[in-house]
Amino acid sequence: MSATSSSASGAPRAAVTATGHFVPERRLTNADLEELVDTNDEWIRKRTGIVERRILDDDQATSDMATEAAEEVLDARGIGADEIDVIIVATVTPDMQFPATACLVQDRIGASNAWGFDLSAACSGFLYGLTTGAQFIESGRFDTVLVIGADTMSAITDFTDRTTCVLFGDAAGAVLLERDDEMGLVDAVHHTDGSGSRFLCMEGGGSRNPPTHRTVDEKMHYIHQEGRPVFKFAVTRMADACVEIMDRNDLEPDDVRYLVPHQANLRIIEAAANRMGLDAEKVMINIDRFGNTTAATIPLCLYEWENDLQRGDGIVLTAFGGGFTWGASYLTWAYDS
Ligand code: UT7
User: Fold this and answer.
1) Which atom of ligand 1 is closest in space to residue 267's alpha carbon?
2) Which residues contact 28 (CB under 8 A, 6 or more apart)?
3) Rounded-to-integer distance, Cα 19 and Cα 314, Å
4) pLDDT tens for residues 121-148?
5) Which of 10, 25, 222, 230 is the S-S candidate for 158 at Cβ 3.0 to 4.6 Å?
6) What pTM was estimated for this model as a whole?
7) Is 165 a catalytic residue?
8) Environment class of residue 289 by beta-carbon count within 10 Å: exposed (0-12), middle (13-18) or buried (19+)?
9) Which residue of 37, 40, 228 sits with most ligand 1 atoms within 8 Å of its CB, as the best mutation to test the pocket?
10) Which domains does the chain have, with CATH numbers?
């Protein structure tokens, strides 16, 4: 049900050495949603913290956003795509069931020496991807790993369901992982509890309910979320994971430069920050502008706050999502922008 990891002392660390992102231009505001469903700006702001979200054009898909984010990473780091060894795309909205979105990105950016795969862990996808990518570097087997979180949530959102359509948006974020002797991923705590699967899922389109007229009629190709039970789990589990990672690493609030939380609900984020004893200015929050972009929220934050980070800064990343999946990671930042 749960697992933890930390690199052995003296072993190389996997450090973030560049970030990138993509957000679509089209904005969907709370006022726009008032036209679509029985909701209002005050309810959405008060219950979630969201003001607007971005929606991808109909002729685009997750790999398009992931490719843009990947190219920005390569530009920022000043390396060629042929130097990438591994590409991990965390997503629940791949372009297709197969091939993996990572394969499409590999081709689009021309990463001729890379292999890659998709990772499905919903809102914890990037956090899981970071740990997975770090293993390749810590083991010494690979040098350069691209970890991308990208989701086109609008493709699986029922815009007649007010309980979900106000929450989600589209975006991609990406980081490059490379070896560093001192800085990088220090520790990670991950959990899974599949008994929560029924509260947050997309029931149609897989082998349990292959797509048919019936699955479409019954709207099984859309996100199903029972908000209240998910909230209850999220608000305690995310905070628990943050406290767990702090305890395991003897971290005091002063040791944490930033908390980088998954952006599902401002109230969940604030609960985690409170339990950690962190002031509000130490918490990366952009849910107001982008909503819940699933696997993209954390790398998008890293991209946006990169200029505030310096080598040696301690940051805690945390997520909770469908599965249930959740966890927290402790990372020391490797570069000054
Ligand atoms: O990222 C993956 C993990 N997901 C999460 O962490 C999400 C966790 N859940 C949540 O963030 C919250 O449960 C929501 C934001 C989804 C909902 O907030 P809530 O405070 O739990 O509201 P609720 O579901 O208890 O609904 C309260 C009321 C209900 O009306 P009644 O039964 O009290 O009359 C809903 O029907 O609000 C109603 N409602 C709305 N009203 C206006 C539900 N959605 C809306 C809406 N606009 N969009």
Assistant:
1) 11
2) 52, 53, 54, 55, 169
3) 17
4) 999 999 999 999 999 999 999 999 999 9
5) 222
6) 0.97
7) no
8) middle
9) 228
10) 2-181 (3.40.47.10), 186-332 (3.40.47.10)
